Amino acid sequence: MAVQLYVSRVSDVLPAVTVIVPTRPAQSEIAAVDAARALDYPQDKLEIIVARGKQPAVQRNKALEAATGELIDGITPAVIANDGPWPRPGRPDHLNPGNAVEQGHASSQ
Fold first, then answer.
1. What integer is the mean pLDDT of 64-89?
2. Which of 43 and 6 is assigned the larger pLDDT?
3. Domain extents for the chain?
4. Contact in structure between 80 and 32 (CB atoms under 8 Å)
5. How many CB atoms lie within 10 A of CB 26?
6. How far apart are the first and last CA of the chain?
7. Minimal CA–CA distance to 16: which of 58, 98, 73, 87?
8. CA distance linking residue 72 with residue 105, whole number of Å
């Protein structure tokens, strides 16, 4: 019995993405912001929210309230160390909507 598979793209339009970066209040150089700016993603579709404070969960929740992206993700120093969680656009696993909201990344996907 032969099985035929058909693959087609749902859309060529990339969604707007919000990247949340929790930081300490006095932190001036934020490597995660530089990493988010360097993402291989259209800058006009990318929103970066720096959430300053001492309670990462509270910071992320406030940033989630302000976020306007269709997909939302967090970026932390662990992400920087692992070369980021996001595949390049055009790959089939690019920004999997099932993983749209995550509370930071302990490991890359």
1. 72
2. 43
3. 17-99
4. yes
5. 6
6. 35
7. 73
8. 12
Using DSSP, state whether 44 is helix, strand or coil: helix
**Could you give the CA distance from residue 82 to residue 84 in angstroms, rounded to a whole number?**
6
Cβ atoms of 36 and 48 closer than 8 Å: yes
For 53-107, the DSSP string reads SS-HHHHHHHHHHH---SEEEE--HHHHHTT-SPPPTTSTTTT-GGG---S--SS
Q: Please, where are the H alpha helices in 4-44? A: 31-37
Instruction: Tell me which residue has tokens 């490597």.
Output: 31
- CA 31, CA 95: separation in Å to the nearest integer? 21
